[in-house]
Amino acid sequence: MIKKISYIIFMLLGYVAMACPACEKQQPELLKGITHGTGPTGDSDYIIITATAIIVLVTFIYFIKYTFFPGEKSTKHIKRKILNYGQ
């Protein structure tokens, strides 16, 4: 039952993310069908979108890096209190 409900939710979320036909006509060719609204109207909009995408990508890379390889090796580091709790 949970699988069916989650499948329906994911299908609806995918449908909501698609652009409607009226919005698709207003989009530039590069972004057609991706989002609702008029989309970027000038070169400055593309610069802002690119800068934001780069910031998100760098943040994601650091998130992965420091999640799996935190680099703290000291036995007095605060994470040791949490990891060794109850031992």
Automatic annotation (TrEMBL):
Residues 1-19 form the signal peptide. It comes from the Bacteria. Keywords: Membrane, Signal, Transmembrane, Transmembrane helix. The chain crosses the membrane at residues 46-64. PROSITE patterns: PROKAR_LIPOPROTEIN (PS51257). This is Cbb3-type cytochrome oxidase component FixQ.
